[in-house]
Amino acid sequence: MWTLYCLKTCDSCRKANAWLKQHDRPFRFHDLREDGVDAARIAVWAERLGWEKLLNRSSTTWRSLSEAERADLDRDKAIGLLIHYPALIKRPVLEADDALLLGFKPENYANLP
C-alpha cells in the first residue's frame, strides 16, 4: 500500500490526497506532525531525494528558525532539523512501492504503476 506523508493544512497535500482518491489508488495518509516520522525514514528520503530538496526553505517553519539553526547546514544537521521540525519537510512525500515522489504533480502520480 502507498503512503502519503503530509500535513493536513498543506494545499499540495490536499491536492495529492484528492488525486489519489479520484483515481482509486489505495493509500494511507500519514500526518507528519501528528504521526511523526522516524530518523531512519528521513535518512532514506535524504539519500534518495537529496537532503537539499527535502528541506523546505520557503516554509514558515524555516523562517522561524534561529540564525544558528539555519547556519552551516550539512546532511546530518538538516536531517536533525527535519526530525525535530517535520513541517520543514517539503511535501507531500509519496512512497509508492519502489517509487518515492516529492511534491505533487499529477503527471508524476499518473505515471506510477
SSE arrangement:
Elements: E1 2-6, H1 11-22, E2 27-31, H2 32-35, H3 39-49, H4 51-54, H5 60-64, H6 67-70, H7 75-84, E3 93-96, E4 99-102, H8 106-110
Parallel strand pairs: 1-2
Antiparallel strand pairs: 1-3, 3-4
Our estimate of the beta-strand percent is 15-25%
The CATH H-level homologous superfamily: Glutaredoxin
Low-confidence stretches: none
- Under the CATH scheme, the architecture is 3-Layer(aba) Sandwich
Q: Give the strand line-up of the largest sheet.
A: 2-1-3-4
Name the overall outline.
globular
Residue-averaged pLDDT, rounded? 96
What does the largest sheet look like?
4 strands, mixed
**Sheet/helix structural class:** alpha+beta
Assigned CATH class? Alpha Beta
Number of helices: 8
Task: List the domain count as a whole number.
Answer: 1
CATH topology: Glutaredoxin
For the termini, the CA-CA separation is: 12 Å
H and E order: EHEHHHHHHEEH
Radius of gyration, whole Å: 14 Å
Task: Provide a short characterization of the protein structure.
The chain has 113 residues and is α+β, with helices and mostly antiparallel strands. The chain has helices at 11-22, 32-35, 39-49, 51-54, 60-64, 67-70, 75-84, 106-110, and strands at residues 2-6, 27-31, 93-96, 99-102.
